[in-house]
Each structure stands twice: as C-alpha cells, then as structure tokens.
Specification:
The protein has 418 residues and is of the alpha+beta class. The protein folds into 2 domains: 94 residues, SH3 type barrels; 294 residues, Fumarylacetoacetate hydrolase, domain 2 (Alpha-Beta Complex). It is 17% helix and 27% strand. The strands form 7 sheets. Strands 6, 7, 8, 13, 14, 16, 17 and 22 form an 8-stranded mixed β-sheet that branches. A 5-stranded antiparallel β-sheet has the order 4-3-2-1-5. It has a 5-stranded mixed β-sheet with strand order 9-26-25-20-21, with no helix packed on it. A hairpin with a 2-residue loop joins β25 and β26. The longest helix is centred in the N-terminal third of the chain and has 16 residues. 45% of the residues are buried.
Amino acid sequence: MQFHSSWLPIPAHSDFSLHNLPFGIFSTKSGEPRVGVAIGEWIMDMTAAHEFGFFKTLEIDAAVFKKETLNDLIALGRMAAKAIRLTIQQWLTDEHSPLKEAASRVLIRQTDARMHMPLRIGNYTDFYSSEEHAMAVGKLYRPENPLLPNWKHMPIAYHGRASSVVLSGTAIHRPLGQTKPGASEYPVFGPTAALDFELELAFVVGKNSELGKPVSMAAAEDHLFGVVLFNDWSARDIQRWEYQPLGPFASKNFASSIAPWVITMDALEAFRVEGPVQAPVPMPYLQTTGPKNFDIHLSAAIQPKGFEETVVTETNAKYLYWNIHQQTAHHTITGCNLNTGDLLATGTISIPGPKGAGCLLEATKGGKQPLNLTGGLNRTFLEDGDEVIIRGFAERDGIKVGFGEVRGEILPSLPDFI
C-alpha cells in the first residue's frame, strides 16, 4: 500500500518516511528508555500512544512498549509489527485522526531524545557473503587462488562477540594486540596500525528456532524481523597474524557498531531483487529462487577531527552472493538454534567500481595505495580522531526507506597496558 501524504510534515528527503516507520529504543529527560517509532524528524512514543488507547483494537499488552529493548515486541511476531505500522500509517494520513489532536503528547522531536541499544543480543554471527569482497581480500594474500574451494558451496561465517556490539555514537578505543611485522622473526605487542571499518547490514532474528531442528529456506523468512546498519570494526594486522588456523578472534572482538533503528522486513518488501547467479548450483538445502536480495544503497564516509567528511565507499546490498535465507538455512543446518534478538550480519558488502570497496583493506590494496580525503589528507587505515559514518537507504517509485546512520569515532589505545 502506498501512502502519499501526511498531516505531519515529513521532509521529502527523510529516511523515515510513511513507508518506513522503524522501531527503536529512546528516552527523554523525563522518562525511562522505551519503544519508539521514527517518523520524519519525530519519534512516536509508543507508551504514550497506548495510554491514549490508540492500540486498543490490536490487543497489544502495554508492557512491551515500556521495555528497554525491542525483544519482547519482536517476539510478538511480524504480523503484530505490521499491524502497528499499518495503524500508524492510517492515523498519519487521516486528517481527523485522534493522533493529530494528541500529537503534542505523543510525538517527540528526535533532537530531544536519546537513543539506546535497540536489542538484547544473545548471539551474533558475521558472514562473508560478498563475492567481490572475498575475491579482493583473497587476491591480496592468495593471488593465484583468491577464493578458497568451499566459498561457493556454502555461506562462510564466524561467531562474533555479542557483548561488544555497541550503539552508534559510541567511541572505539584503538585495540591492542600481537602483530608480526613482515621482516620480524617474532611477533610484537602494541596498538593496531591497521584499524579498519567494514560496511555491513545485520538481520535481526525475530523468532526462536528449536535446538536440533534446522530452519529451511522456505521457513527462513518467518524467523527474520528486520535489518540494521552495522560496522564490524577490524584490526587487520592483528587479524593477519592470528587468523590461521581458526579464523578471526581478537582482531574483531573489541567492537561492532549498530544503528539505533530496526527497519522491518515488511518495509523492505518493495525493494526485493534477484541476487547474482550462483555457480556451481548450491546443494538442495541452499537452493534459492525468486527475489531474496534487497536493493539497498550503502555508503561509508571518513571524517577526521576538524575536517569535513569524505565518502570513500558507495555500494549496494543487491550484489550479495549469499542471501539472508541461505545464511539462515546454513546457520541452522546442524541444529544450531536461533533466538529472538540474535544478529546475522552480511559481512563486508563490496561491488565493482572505484568506490565499491566496503572496507579500507580493499580500497587501499592492503595499505599500499592511500585514499585521498577532503582537506589534503589521506588514509591507508583509520587514525585516532577519525569518525566513520555508514548510511543506507532504499528508493523506488517515489518510496524511500532509510536506515539512518551508524557512527563511531576512534580514540587512542588505553595507556595502562602499553
């Protein structure tokens, strides 16, 4: 259903159009963290709206809107979230809506609110689903064999650290660790000299699955609630020394940044597209048909302290080789269970082109070709004081659904351990 106008002014360029209405957790000076819905420059206080009786016909317990995370609301199921969004859309397009009369008590300017972590994340898995990214990184270290033999047969992933997923705006201390300079016989200890961002999306699990019972491709959609912008920070020199034989560990466990707004799967329905042709044909449990990818424009910018930002990445999620349905099916094929609020991240999203690299490791060819930034600066990897800003939106036929942004500034290493 397409909604054209609202009595509430919503800027044409807004990420949070009538077609979006994402969920988040916010607070004001006079209240505890609670559920809100973003509308243009405003947040609808869902607790206040419920108290006015606006959700009476939906029979939703007011308690879910008073929680400090979205988990309980998500657990009600996608149909409940869809009903909430449809009701709000109808209120906003009805000049005689009771919401219009109560607007001053239900709507809060985003500038007057503080955002909080939207989810209680029990588990976080990071996939490696972009062929362009996997190929580019592989060429840096294995020019003759960039894609390992298993890559086109199954979605590759590692289990990340849920406890260090932080909200957008949280500053990140430069991590310490072991690295091995090329000419050195032994490793050395100190701050990473190759700190990187990774431009990603993370899908939010919306339904528990049963331990021991795989989730099929056909059932995967029912276990997904929404999507957030995601930045999986990486220390490339630490990663290079530690990743064999078991993959990333300390090089990625120190922080991952998440945007405050969860965009529902239903809001993205108009932006579904076919993914790349998969060859060889995957095994039966991973075979996919129909539009399972999403046409989402993504960008990353670097803003050194005191300078303007420079967009260094422009990419799109529609090019992902492995889609979220395949990721879900493979994740659970052994019987591993999913829980509401878990995150399934795509891994770095890259595409061909001059700004198509989704991280600095790719963009600078492993640190060998610096990027030029505004103000005469350049970067191979991130420096202290740099802020990374990742943004995303989908737009088609006059409908725009934006993701907001996820930010993080780099602080120096904590001195006590150096």
